[in-house]
Amino acid sequence: MSATLHTVSSGALIGTVLPLLTAIVQRPAWSAHYKKIVAVAAAIVAGVLTVAAEGSWSQFAHGKLTLATILAVLAASQTTYDLLWKPTKIAPAIEALTTTNRPQRAE
User: With 60 as the cut, is the pLDDT of residue 78 above it?
Assistant: First the structure.
């Protein structure tokens, strides 16, 4: 398998679990627009880290590889979120569990 295909495939695999990781930092009260910004930023970071992990920092000399990997992470994360993690309510449940601003009882 070529290095490009391997890196893009790894990016797609990372993208499938990325919505679960972003659900840890996202909050149910956030607007959909803000959640999208966080998801895209996470995909960019995950794509860059995937390229670095697959072929060291020298891989960034190949801009197309980096862009393709970032797009693979983004496409896989958005697709799996819409088709799997959101309908099964797993990602929203993680958001709710990791929310630290819980209402406090009056004393």
Answer: yes
Are 35 and 78 in contact, with CB atoms under 8 Å apart? no
Residue ranges per domain, the chain?
A: 3-97
Cβ density class 13-38: b for 16+ within 10 Å, e for less:
ebbbebbbebbeebeeeeeeeebeee
* H helices present in 1-107, as ranges: 3-25, 32-55, 63-80, 90-97
The burial class, CB within 10 Å (0-12 / 13-18 / 19+), for 79 is middle
Structure tokens at 17: 């679990």
* Residue 101 neighbours by CB distance under 10 Å: 7
- 89 in helix, strand or coil? coil
Residue 41 pLDDT level (bands cut at 50, 70, 90)? very high
pTM of the model: 0.81
